[in-house]
Amino acid sequence: MAFTGFLCSMMAVGALAEVRINQNLANKVIEWRRDIHQHPELSNQEVRTAKVVADHLKSLGLEVQTGIAKTGVTGFLKGGKPGPTIAFRADMDALPVAEQVDLPFKSRVTATLQGQEVGVMHACGHDAHVAMLMGAAEQLASMKDQLAGNILFIFQPAEEGVPDAETWGAKQMLEEGIFKKYKPEAVFGIHVMTNMHTGYVGYRKGQILASMDSFEITIKGRQTHGSMPWAGADPIVAAAQIITGSQSIVSRKVDITASPAVVSYGIVSGGLRDNIIPDTVVLKGTLRNFDMDTRQQVFESLRYMAKYTAEAHGVEAEVKIHEQYPVTINNPELVDAMLPVTQQLVGKDKVVEVPVRTAGEDFSFYALEVPGMYVMLGATPADQDPQQAPANHSPFFHMDEAAMEIGTNLFVNWALNYPQAMKK
Question: How confident is the model at residue 10 (pLDDT cuts 50, 70, 90)?
Fold first, then answer.
């Protein structure tokens, strides 16, 4: 059956429709990804990427809105038949990582972040997410007369977060009303992962990704000469005890058999000379868990541990906790309904249940508003060991571009089969 500009195959298998993009569109998806990869932009700076997306969506005749949450873009496709509205989401931002992979389209972009010059790289696969969703929009727009219902395409900034921001990415797009305006009844997302072979799709019902929060502990002592520590109050020793002691929150305060949790420190800052005990030390880190009650328990335990450990050393500790992403939860009914569609497309043996991961995702905000389904897409070739492949966020991260055709097809087939699948 021919659609605008290209051919695709469409068949009924049982009660399910199946569409696969043709090679022409698959090649375009790769070209888009390479272009975006070569021109990465940090969170809330995705100006060029947003323009590429918006221009493409407008060329397809979609209703396009730009400037949401600073650089976000939405495209709304009205199907030719009555039906529900669903949403697909792709994140657009890159990371402050200097690429170490030798590619013809390698990123050589630099930017300034918190006063420092940093390399910028799509080290998490967001370039692929954008390209896949652009491809899905083109395929679905070409066959909108056969589409029952509507699709909201969300191209979101700042999934990786913005330092010291109060809101960003998904949360801000929701605050600016995208769901209130279009009223989707379900939302879908895909993340490419190098810990699975290309062709595999990882899913999980219920909790799949952890909540993600950051904390800052400021320890205030009294500066003195390093040769006379008794003349002051040492915040460094107190900081060391807080770092060590707070690990007991996970090992002794949280029932990790019911809900895993993580307390990790990423920044320890204090002092200017080796012979001066400073008056202040700042600690910064991240918290992860899979249960909202546990989340609050960890918050309170960290505050308690810091406060009283500091007092025992004659210093003071101020704890600030920045709540960021809630737990990402896949709606079980939605997963059950869409699992046959996914299995038909990639093969039942290649749709695998994955364990929870302590990574965080602001897709979680969408899934709190409406039922959500978030899956992992394998992106390491069959002749490579995915356990040895550089992980997401590595400067050596490199994905198999063949995975993007699968991801594009997933979006398309979820859209086509959602109304019927949810009636069963």
Answer: very low
Give 112's strand partners: 117
**pLDDT digit string (tens) for 216-274?**
999 999 999 999 999 999 999 999 999 999 999 999 999 988 889 999 999 999 999 99
The angle at the Cα of 55, spanning 51 to 61, to the nearest 5 degrees, equals: 145
Same domain, 159 and 15: yes
On whether both 168 and 248 belong to a single domain, the answer is no
Catalytic-residue membership of 325: yes
Whole domain around residue 294: which residue ranges?
Answer: 222-314
Tell me the residue ranges of DSSP E strands in 229-339.
261-269, 276-277, 280-289, 316-325, 328-330
> Which runs of consecutive H residues, i.e. helices, occur in 85-148?
126-142
Which runs of consecutive H residues, i.e. helices, occur in 190-246?
235-245
Please report whether residue 377 resides in a domain.
yes
Do residues 331 and 422 lie in contact, with contact meaning Cβ atoms separated by under 8 Å? no
- Do 227 and 202 fall into the same domain? no
The CATH code of the domain that includes 347 is 3.40.630.10
Q: Is 318 a catalytic residue?
A: no
DSSP secondary structure letters along 24-88: HHHHHHHHHHHHHHHS---TT--HHHHHHHHHHHHHTT-EEEEEETTTEEEEEEE-SEEEEEEEE
Please give the structure tokens belonging to residue 84: 């529900």
* Chosen domain end from 271, 291, 314: 314
- Nearest-5° angle of CA 280, CA 310, CA 308? 150
- 147 and 9 in a common domain: yes
pTM here is 0.92
Would you say how long the chain is, in residues?
Answer: 424
- 356: tokens are 């929870």
The 10 Å Cβ neighbour count of residue 66 is 16
Q: Percent of the chain, pLDDT > 70?
A: 97
List pLDDT tens digits, range 47-69.
999 999 999 999 999 999 999 99
Q: Which of 203, 325, 374, 418 is catalytic?
A: 325
Catalytic residue among 63, 216, 316, 401: 401
Helix, strand, coil percentages in the chain from 3-state DSSP, rounded to 5? 35, 35, 30
The answer to whether residues 347 and 292 belong to one domain is no
In a domain, residue 217? The reply is no
Identify the band that residue 133 occupies on the pLDDT scale cut at 50, 70 and 90: very high
CB atoms within 10 A of CB 237: 17
- Is residue 374 domain-resident? yes
